[in-house]
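hiii, so i know i said id send this last week but things got crazy w the move. better late than never?? heres the sequnce for the chain we talked about at the cafe, plus the structure i predicted for it. fair warning i was half asleep when i ran it
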Amino acid sequence: MSPTSASTATAIAEAVRSGERSAREVVDEHLAAIEAREPELHAFNLVMADEARASADAIDRARAAGEQLGPLAGVPIALKDNLCTRGIPTTCSSRILEGWRPPYDATVVQRLAAAGAVAVGKTNLDEFAMGSSTENSAFGPTRNPHDTSRVPGGSSGGSAAAVAAGFAPLSLGSDTGGSIRQPAALCGVVGVKPTYGSVSRYGLVAFASSLDQIGPFATTVDDAALLLEVIAGHDPLDSTSIPQPAPSLRSELGRGVEGLRVGVIRELTGEGIAPDVARRVTAAADALAVAGAKVDEASVPAVAYGLSAYYLIAPAEASSNLARYDGVRYGLRVDASNSPEMMVASRTAGFGDEVKRRIMLGTYALSAGYYDAYYGKAQRVRTLIIRDFAAAYEDFDVLLSPTSPTTAFAFGDKTADPLTMYLNDICTIPSNLSGDPAVSVPYGVGDDGLPVGVQVLAPAMQEATMLRVAAALEASR
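okay and structure toks below
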């Protein structure tokens, strides 16, 4: 499952643009890989074979006509099934959206098509992106390609598994509390959460609007940087979009880390982190030091409260965002004798247990008499986290931590206790609360032979520096 140079997105696009390979040939190859292993893994909710072949044929015709092809010409890509695709089912892995076909494409989907990428399917996820294992999908779990008895992580488990299994060299996920980085770590691929606002969220079905961010999965840092260059940049359709053009990232990757200041976050490398994971973070820090970086211990004290703050803020926003699924306008409708009963019946049948749990928690946190004690206090903690990161970045260019506290765990291990499951996101949540970028890079394996991810964190809009460090880690493995 490790990439060959010819299988990277960069190499595929170059080969298609030069005429060395046809887009149809590339797509057929990947569809064959999907057909061979998808029944075992269930990475997809929908495989778009016919649409993918039609897109590939259009790219080949454009090349034959002498047209200039885009930076992702002919590259297969998998899309998380909470990204709107015009006329193609978008389910968020929930029964509540049964039969819904969006009337528009998400901005990132449009940008991918303009760059020549070929969507091969919609990937499985925890329902409405709520989970850390993809066990909460209404359509059944996705399995980890490295060990099918283990979870792929979540909520973007299908997107991570699709890249790890070779179904597509690239995929998109969404990250609200670690939903790109954590499955990337567990599946042994690269996963990037960009700066909040740097990638348009128009057409992403909302979970928690102040936290959600779309980002890439890839087998290499270079491919992840290429995909991020394509999807980033201002979008007037997203009111939270940063009014800046897409960054130049790939040209920075080879600059190395000589003289960069790297801080290993003390609060995220001690208690609760498996010893084999902690050893890989230490090895990564040592490798950066050998490459010329100045490595030291960093402290971000408020991250200790990140989990508590997140599980008030995110459910509160979810309870508001998910109020629109009422059985009236679209999706599942369970008939009843009157409208209120119909809404209750539709939501009861349409939402899974974890979604209901978070809606109830969020509604309670926002209710009269509790708002200040819960949601208001969580927002104040969020401010403390932002301040502590800002203070750390005065001394360091980037920060380092584990991505996930453990390697991939077995199915059913953590489903009985939601808190145990929530602890999987302890290292990733702080970046969502601060809005800063972070990337998970595969860095060896744990004692069980399964992948370990190391997380590189950076200040807002400093993806270029962050990915330079990630590329150095990748080269040192």
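btw Residues 185 and 232 are 23 Å apart (CA to CA). thought thatd interest u
miss u guys!!
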